[in-house]
Amino acid sequence: MKHSLSPAMHNAAFRELGIDAEYLLYDVEPEKLEAFLGDMARANISGLNVTIPHKIRAREYLERKGSLDNNAKKLGAVNTIKIDGPALSGFNTDGPGFYRSLVEDLKFEPEGKSVFVLGAGGAAKAIVMYLGNGTKNISVFDIDKEKTGELKEHYKKYFDEKKLSILADDAQLKDALAASDLLVNATPIGMKETDPSPVDKEFLKAGMYVYDLVYNRPLTQLVKDANARKAHAVTGLGMLLYQGAISFEIWTGSKAPVAVMKKALKEALKSSGNG
Ligand code: NAP
Prior knowledge:
By secondary structure, the protein is an alpha/beta fold. 44% of the residues lie in helices and 14% in strands. The chain has helices at 6-17, 33-42, 55-65, 70-75, 94-104, 122-131, 145-158, 170-178, 221-228, 237-252, 258-271, and strands spanning 47-49, 67-68, 80-84, 87-91, 114-118, 137-141, 164-166, 182-185, 209-212, 232-234. A six-stranded parallel β-sheet has the order 7-6-5-8-9-10, sandwiched between helices. Strands 1-3-4-2 form a four-stranded mixed β-sheet, sandwiched between helices. The protein is globular. The structure holds NADP nicotinamide-adenine-dinucleotide phosphate. NADP nicotinamide-adenine-dinucleotide phosphate is lined by residues 118-124, 141-144, 147, 186-189, 191, 198, 213-215, 236, 239-240, 243.
């Protein structure tokens, strides 16, 4: 969290709109989260982001003491809290942020398409639960079978389970990739400069769409390979930007200055030694 890019993005947006506010970072121990949220409800602030490891605990708290939007309810996790007097409402902007970047940056409309998600952790879950039944189907592969099992159980509480396939091995992975319109990398592979692509180059085909959630590098090996195979590919900076822009709009009720926020994000990435 100490290296969060969010302060740069939000503070640039406040300055741009002349809003007298500041985005600050707080390190909170998990067992102190509820007391912290109680204090924040009494403070004169408009809202908060909460991140790992607090997203589920924050949802539980708001279920009892506040309200939740549909996304946060379905996903079971909160990343944005709006404070209105003493009232707290919880939202999750990860799925909507991904969707907006998918459409605006990658120019891909997922409705009726086949989607392949590599990884079944927190980010994958936000994406799968937001896409829901709106795609033709979603295939998920993760080396951690407990995570894929949990994702499937969660998904079927809300959606038609026939639309979600959990892949068991490399052979299934290869077949599903060949039949997919969009590949999403939701693993951390690519964050380090020396990381290989998480997907064999042979599996990428011309015209396919690739969304790599990794955002701390301008280009990952997966994106380079996709470009070489004439696929369309982006890294995850746009998701980070739009989840923040949607949070900003929830807190302020003003349209987020997306271009200014994007520039601030890129500069913050560069000065962190990446980008
Ligand atoms: P996470 O909860 O740790 O989930 C990642 C999952 O991928 C884990 O279950 C991991 O299994 C699995 N995995 C690792 N290598 C794999 C492989 N070769 N094949 C299949 N599965 C594999 O992480 P997360 O929070 O979901 O984040 C995932 C990535 O998304 C990170 O790079 C993060 O920075 C990025 N992200 C980006 C944004 C954005 O705004 N752009 C937002 C959220 C997250 P093991 O645990 O067994 O290794």
